[in-house]
């Protein structure tokens, strides 16, 4: 299948597919501290050392676990992902959208681009639905104990992965030359118009803007039970950061499903019209 028929849907994770922060489901409760206390520790550390907030939370995860004599390993992070719950319809979303795309002659691919922890996401029920999961991660020793971050993805570095997806440079994350090399045959790229970014807040703005400004579609989803999240989504739309806003409800016939299916319709129609040129 050529890339004109590929559609890439890219998702943030926390508060986009699953309510809340993934660390708050198991990791922080295992520390026996309040979630607010954990994030306060991270904020203080970041300010004290002028540190990136993502590196601060990754450091704090390891440091507090040591202080509390809490064993953390790659396998334990996977287990923590198993208990994460999702917004309505998420677990059946991917098959429905894939089937609809296929009915239009399209191949839909799903990706995660998250500032959260990759190993926790990989332990979730929906991990198998994604072609790739791009998220923060640790390097582990022979006992699966984390000893150093191997990827720390913040709100601006998230944008790198949009280009990786567009160019299908999905592996060898250490190789910046491969990512930045110019591709003469532009048919090898996924068209910008075939890209959809789904996020929930300010940390998604750089990705939202890039996808929208290049001719793709950005969608801000919000938890309908949280007034703050509704206000953020409305502001993103008012500020022209996104094409659409919708409740984080992925169930059949939801607004979110109707938006995405309409975008797929548009891609399919464009492909048909292009055959007449």
Summarize the model shown.
The protein is of the alpha/beta class.
Q: What does this protein look like?
A:
- With 277 residues, the protein is of the alpha/beta class.
- The chain folds into 2 domains: 3-19 and 86-274, Rossmann fold (3-Layer(aba) Sandwich); 23-81, no CATH class.
- The chain is 42% helix and 17% strand.
- The two termini are 20 Å apart.
CATH fold name of the largest domain: Rossmann fold
What is the count of β-strands?
7
Radius of gyration: 19 Å
CATH architecture call of the largest domain: 3-Layer(aba) Sandwich
The rough form would be described as: globular
Helix proportion of residues, in percent?
40-55%
- CATH class value of the largest domain: Alpha Beta
Our count of domains comes out at 2
Q: Ends: how far apart?
A: 20 Å
Compressed to H and E, one letter per element, the order equals EHHHHHEHEEHHEHEHEH
Low-confidence stretches: none
Q: Key terms for this structure?
A:
2 domains, single chain, alpha/beta, seven-stranded mixed beta sheet, 277 residues, Rossmann fold
Q: How are the SSEs ordered, and which strands pair?
A:
Elements: E1 6-11, H1 27-31, H2 35-49, H3 53-67, H4 74-81, H5 90-103, E2 107-117, H6 118-122, E3 132-140, E4 146-151, H7 159-167, H8 176-180, E5 195-199, H9 205-213, E6 217-222, H10 227-238, E7 244-247, H11 255-274
Parallel strand pairs: 1-2, 1-5, 2-3, 5-6, 6-7
Antiparallel strand pairs: 3-4
Helix pairs in contact: 2-3, 5-11
């Amino acid at each position: 299948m050529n890339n004109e028929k590929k559609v890439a849907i890219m998702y943030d994770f926390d508060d986009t597919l699953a309510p809340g922060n993934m660390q708050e489901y198991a990791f922080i409760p295992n520390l026996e501290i309040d979630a607010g206390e954990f994030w306060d520790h991270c904020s203080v550390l970041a300010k004290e050392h002028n540190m990136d907030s993502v590196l601060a939370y990754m450091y704090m995860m390891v440091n507090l676990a040591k202080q509390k004599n809490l064993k953390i390993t790659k396998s334990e992070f996977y287990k923590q992902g198993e208990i994460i719950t999702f917004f309505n319809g998420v677990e059946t979303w991917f098959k429905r959208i894939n089937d609809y795309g296929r009915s239009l002659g399209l191949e839909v691919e799903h990706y995660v681009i998250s500032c959260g922890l990759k190993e926790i996401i990989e332990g979730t029920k929906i991990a198998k639905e994604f072609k790739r999961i791009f998220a923060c991660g640790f390097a582990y020793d022979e006992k699966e104990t984390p000893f150093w971050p191997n990827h720390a993805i913040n709100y601006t570095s998230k944008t790198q992965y949009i280009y990786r997806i567009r160019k299908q440079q999905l592996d060898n994350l250490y190789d910046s030359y491969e990512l930045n090399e110019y591709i003469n045959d532009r048919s090898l790229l996924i068209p910008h118009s075939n890209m959809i970014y789904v996020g929930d807040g300010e940390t998604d703005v750089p990705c939202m803007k890039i996808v929208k400004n290049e001719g793709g579609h950005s969608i801000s989803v919000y938890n309908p039970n949280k007034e703050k999240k509704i206000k953020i989504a409305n502001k993103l739309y008012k500020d022209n950061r996104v094409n659409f806003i919708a409740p984080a409800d992925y169930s059949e016939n939801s607004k979110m499903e109707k938006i995405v299916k309409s975008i797929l319709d548009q891609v399919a129609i464009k492909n048909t019209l292009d055959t007449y040129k």
